[in-house]
Request: fold
Amino acid sequence: MHYLPNILFALALAVGFGFFAMNVRKLFRNIRLGKDINRTDNKTARLKNMLKIAFGQSKMVRRPISGLLHLVVYIGFIIINIEVLEIVIDGLFGSHRLFQGVLGANFYGFLIGTFEVLALLVLVAVFVFWMRRNVVKIKRFLSTEMKGWPKNDGNFILYFEVVLMTLFLTMNATDVPFQEAGIGNVISQFIAPIFEGFSAETLHTIERTAWWLHILGILVFLNYLYYSKHLHILLAFPNTYFANLNPKGQFTNLEAVTKEVKLMMDPSADPYATPTETADNQVPEKFGASDVTDLSWVQLLNAYTCTECGRCTSSCPANLTGKKLSPRKIMMDTRDRLEEVGKNIDANGGVFKDDGKQLLNDYITPEELWACTSCNACVEECPVNIDPLSIIMDMRRYLVMEQSAAPQSLNMMMTNIENNGAPWQYNQQDRLNWVNEE
Reply:
């Protein structure tokens, strides 16, 4: 029975990390449903982007209030969780504050003191975030797509943080030997008086309860990430590394179109060949994207990384003028459809069974896509380098090239370019007539 707590702790770790590993494997499977794209070039620039934007939070602080508060929570999350290593070792081997003896009282006290100060700052930041969402009601948190689960999810993570930080400080405040040593208890020493008059056994029970709830809460939080927008805590790093390095506004040619043009220009090609008799013996690819499997794996990674912060939508000129487009909704819809496809695959033995639905129309409407001005404001504003515009453009390409479903004004422009070599409905020979006007 002496080893029972250690065994239970090991089981909790195994279940927590096992479930997390299962979800990570499912996440990678879903992302790999996207088309392949090469993002292995210019490794130095990519690493610099990741360090500056994901690790250094350089784009977050463009909006000082939310940026600095997020920085506090981010630093607190990273540094305080170093303490989890000690908890894991103590839990597995039955020790208590093992690092105190290993690191020495002074250095250990400095670390725990830093953790406690950060825990307090995180509580303050979380309170401000909660007020901004629920009392002040910042406009970008009130959009249609932020109803229901997205709104609740944003609050749940704040409650998680409050509980975890409170348990950490309570654990320290009721640890009698730690308080008596007077090292690192810069915040918990002010909480300890609350428990004055409690017996030693009661204090020990409270400390052990807070200790267990703290580590179990971290395991629950870890597995909650997959179902939450806070998956960006993990995915922001690969997302910024694999982000597009080309200048904003530079669009790529579709490989499928390039293949078709090369085939048309090939004198040896049979103009009457069926699709399966083309030069590479393959059916020509779909032009553009109508569902998530038509997008690249980087675009699907973007969808999972979306923080739902709304900076993209609050900067979108189409949205600001009352149009239906919300770049945040584009990313959320893409992720929701990808999750739906993943669940379909799981339910059908690893094979996707046609469900009669797709990203286009069932999630994202043509009206949203054509409202986009392709100005790249959403791409510029995103704090983790997500590119909603690339998804919008690929779906537009599908509408134009597969369904001939462009708006009338655009169809007229393309017809004029085809017939007159210019967007205007004037014969080329009449273009200079204006010089004779008086």
Summary: The two ends are 104 Å apart (CA to CA). The mean pLDDT is 91. Residues 20 and 223 are 5 Å apart (CA to CA).
